[in-house]
Amino acid sequence: MAGVQLLALLSLAVAASSLSMGAQATTGPDARKVGVYELKLGDFSVKVTNWGARLMSVVLPDSKGNLADVVLGRDTLAEYFNDTSYFGPIAGRVAQRISRGRFVLDGKVYHLQRNDGKNTIHGGGTAFSKSAWTVKEYVGGGDSPYITLYYRSFDGEQGFPGSLDTYVTYRVSGPYTLGVHMNATARDRATPVNLLLHAYWNLGGHGEGIGRDVLGHTLRLHASRYAVLDAELLPSSGRVAPVAGTPLDFRAPTPIGARIRQVTGGKVVGYDANYIVDGEPGSMRPVAEVRDAASGRALELWANQATVQFYTGNWLNHTEGKGGEVYNQYAGFTLETMGYVDAVNHPEFPSQTLRPGQEYKHDMVFKFSF
Ligand SMILES: *[C@@H]1O[C@H](CO)[C@@H](O)[C@H](O)[C@H]1NC(C)=O
Ligand SMILES: *[C@@H]1O[C@H](CO)[C@@H](O)[C@H](O)[C@H]1NC(C)=O
Ligand SMILES: *[C@@H]1O[C@H](CO)[C@@H](O)[C@H](O)[C@H]1NC(C)=O
């Protein structure tokens, strides 16, 4: 145990020295403990902060060799502390929406903090995405740079039962591959768990690219079915329907903007849809491929989760971003692999209950090319 703590201290010392290189300001909640960590392999660079275990940036070349950052976010940690757009965090303990902020587990009713109208979203107001995680291990260079972050969610946090140990590892490997590996164990009581990474992508990159929205990006989703969501973006009917014949059908590569005017993500026009990923949940399988013809950049996402929420940044609206850029509607998209939305209130969906002795395991792999 002492070894682990020492390692954490050493990691923080490394972070502190990288901060003194002038990259980031550190003011705000838990500033002394919060840092920015770079994972670098050649000209591929990924930055992560332990504030909300956030993915801050991914820099890679385009087809002409120009480097750019393809993740939406902010320039400084101080700005991330104010973030209300969920730029890049791990959301939990149960991400996405929970109807009326309530559920029943083992015969007991739990009430959560409601932070999305009458409902709870992304685990409540000040959960995983707005806390300082502990840096367990950090290796910034070499063949396979990585960082492992740890968060203990306490019994009763945002209303959830029992304490939970959560780890997230971001790992870079060649060529241009980013793995995100999450696990969790319930320490004392059963609890629902459903984590997700809420990163917005624009493969055009910052600089020239972000001025363009993502409507011209081509998307392919390995999903033949979707969970029907209502106006509150809840799967109230419990229905799963085929995408065939709907504007949600991305089984063949299709520009994101081709039919976007025909869909509403809740109260605004745009995608905020939950797809059932084809194949066997629990096994790594292809989820999505996205290509931006203008830059030549593409990403391929693999994951082991049952569903993926595809969101087109419908609520971005003169939102301050990096380098003085302003993000408007459709400036980025998310591909949030996860379990079924509101599974805690839908026995017809696969259970998200994690009991002591069981392991929650969520793996994502992004393969970039250009
Ligand atoms: C954070 O928000 C507060 C309140 O709106 C504002 O005064 C402050 O300037 C913001 N900080 C940053 C770094 O944007
Ligand atoms: C979760 O991941 C961490 C970090 O990689 C690892 O140390 C731990 O053993 C994992 N937990 C389980 C239950 O596998
Ligand atoms: C964007 O902001 C403008 C001005 O505040 C507002 O009129 C418009 O409804 C907003 N659009 C969305 C999608 O929120």
Automatic annotation (TrEMBL):
Signal sequence segment: 1-18
Family, similarity comment: Belongs to the aldose epimerase family.
Reactions the enzyme catalyzes: alpha-D-glucose = beta-D-glucose
Keywords annotated in UniProt: Carbohydrate metabolism, Isomerase, Signal
Pfam families membership: Aldose_epim (PF01263)
Stored InterPro entries: Aldose_1-epimerase, Aldose_1/G6P_1-epimerase, Gal_mutarotase_sf_dom, Galactose_mutarotase-like, GH-type_carb-bd
Name of this chain's protein: Aldose 1-epimerase
EC numbers on record: 5.1.3.3
Active site: 198, 336
GO BP terms: galactose catabolic process via UDP-galactose, Leloir pathway; glucose metabolic process
Pathway(s) served: Carbohydrate metabolism; hexose metabolism
